[in-house]
C-alpha cells in the first residue's frame, strides 16, 4: 500500500525539492508499484516475468495504474544484456509508468564503455565482482572474448 500522497511545495519551503516531487508524481499516483531487480541480462526470464504480470493484472492495468520499477543490475552475467536493455526501452514507450534505476553492475558497464568517468588509480587491485558469481543464480555468462576487455 502506498503512503499518502504529499503535495508538491516550492524548493524554499524546507521540505523535499519541488523538482523531486514533480518527478515522482506519476509514481506516487500509481495504484500499485511492482519492483523488479537483478535481471542481469536474462531477457528470457524477464519476458516470462512480464507475461506473468500481464496474466495477473491485465495489460490495461499495467499501462494505466501500475508503476513498474526496474531496480538496477540490468546488465552483466546473463547472455542477453543488449537485448534486455532494448526490450526495457521498448516497454517504456508502451507503458508510461515503467522506471529504471541503475545498479552497481550497470555503472560498471557504463564505466567499461567509457560513458561515465572512471579513475583506475582509485580502485583497489582486489576490487572484483568475481566473488558474486554463482552459476545457480543465472543461466550463463557471456561466453565470448571482448576485445579490450
C-alpha Rg, in Å? 18 Å
Q: What is the mean pLDDT? A: 75
Distance between the termini: 44 Å
Count the strands?
A: 3
Q: Main sheet: which strands, in order across?
A: 1-2-3
Low-confidence stretches: 1-15
Beta-strand share of residues: 5-15%
Shape: globular
Largest sheet: 3 strands, parallel
Structural class: mainly alpha
Looking at the chains present, what oligomeric state does this protein adopt? single chain
Structure notes:
It is globular, with a radius of gyration of 18 Å. It is mostly helical and 149 residues long. Helix content is 38%, strand content 9%. It has a 3-stranded parallel sheet with strand order 1-2-3.
Short description, anyone?
38% of the residues lie in helices and 9% in strands. The protein has helices at 18-29, 43-57, 59-64, 81-94, 104-112; strands spanning 32-36, 66-70, 98-100.
Q: How are the SSEs placed, and which strands pair?
A:
Elements: H1 18-29, E1 32-36, H2 43-57, H3 59-64, E2 66-70, H4 81-94, E3 98-100, H5 104-112
Parallel strand pairs: 1-2, 2-3
Quickly list its features:
3-stranded parallel β-sheet; mainly alpha; disordered N terminus; 149 residues; 5 helices
Amino acid at each position: 500500500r502506498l503512503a499518502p500522497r504529499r503535495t508538491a511545495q516550492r524548493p524554499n519551503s524546507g521540505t523535499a525539492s519541488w523538482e523531486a516531487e514533480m518527478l515522482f508524481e506519476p509514481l506516487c499516483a500509481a495504484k500499485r508499484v511492482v519492483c523488479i531487480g537483478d535481471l542481469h541480462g536474462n531477457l528470457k526470464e524477464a519476458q516470462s516475468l512480464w507475461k506473468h504480470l500481464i496474466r495477473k493484472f491485465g495489460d490495461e492495468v499495467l499501462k494505466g495504474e501500475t508503476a513498474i520499477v526496474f531496480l538496477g543490475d540490468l546488465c552483466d552475467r546473463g547472455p542477453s544484456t543488449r537485448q534486455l536493455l532494448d526490450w526495457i526501452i521498448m516497454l517504456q514507450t508502451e507503458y508510461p509508468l515503467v522506471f529504471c534505476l541503475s545498479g552497481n553492475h550497470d555503472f560498471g558497464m557504463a564505466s567499461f564503455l567509457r560513458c561515465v568517468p572512471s579513475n583506475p588509480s582509485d580502485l583497489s587491485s582486489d576490487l572484483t565482482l568475481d566473488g558474486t558469481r554463482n552459476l545457480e543464480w543465472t543461466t550463463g555468462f557471456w561466453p565470448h572474448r571482448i576485445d579490450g576487455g
